[in-house]
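Annex B. Sample input.
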Amino acid sequence: MSRNMNRIAAVVTAGALAAGGATAGYLGRGAADETASPTATTVAAASTAQQAAAQSTLSVSQLYRSARSGVVEVIAQERAADSPFPGGGSGEATAQGSGFVYDSTGRVITNQHVVDGASSVSVRFASGQTIHAEVVGTDASTDVAVLKVDSLPSSAKPLVLGNSDAVQVGDGVVAIGSPFGLTGTVTSGIVSAVGREIDSPNNYAIEGAIQTDAAINHGNSGGPLFDMHGRVIGVNAQIKSDSGGNDGVGFAIPSSTVRSIASRLIQSGSVQHAYLGVSLDTADSGGAHISTVATGTPAAAAGLRGSDVVTAVDGKKIASSQELRLVIDNHKPGDRIELRVRRAGETMTFTVTLGTRPAA
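Annex B, continued. Sample output.
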């Protein structure tokens, strides 16, 4: 059986691009990106060819030849709760997505929704070799997962993470993945927009997503989005479509978020995100407008109310709801922050001790 991965969000389909993934929601981006890997011990240097490629603009064909060995297909199997077979027996649902080699120890990056609920995961490399993988850790709030295989095929080389903060609208991009199980499929396009907000599988906002018109479809989930130097600037995660197919509106999780979350998953197997406990939109007059305050949350305990407008955090001006989410996500649970708030024409100050974001 194949699991249908389409998710309906508002009027359009936000396709979780694997044949078996999950949906989207609300969150914030991780720490600022760098051009180097998190640590020298965690991520190995890429091949000489890849390093050289990162210094010059490549054609699509050159990029494909340089990077293909680092792109993988991810196959996740989930034991069905209700067997379709007479008299019992076992049934399995199969989810198929994409991913890429992160380091020389055998770690692989993919989407959380590709492996969510899987009882067994395997990785198929460009060489055709399929190897069982363990799930190192997943984070539904950013839709990032880290897998690990015991050994890499000799031809499989780690890919280089680029700087998503430097990406500009109109930049050329290339996606490589396994749409509909067609391994090694390459498509190209441009960056259509930056700084988009998309929904995570547990309904928080993922900030800073890269929008692209490069064709991505079901099965591209978790695969790399490259700049024209062969560096991974994002992880393909969603499409928006009336039909559920590619309509030229795809979204990739920025490499800055991937780098930050992957390093934390490798270190501890999980990620805790700071939590305020409010619903936000951007105020017409600037600032982050609080639509609602959930009961029993840090915001409620501090005395914040719906219709308050947050204008500064720890003295730093806040111009939008997105800025406030980013500031909160760059803190840790237990941190104390000072919010300057506009309420009914008056300016007030509140001190909030941030909590831990609920799983959903």
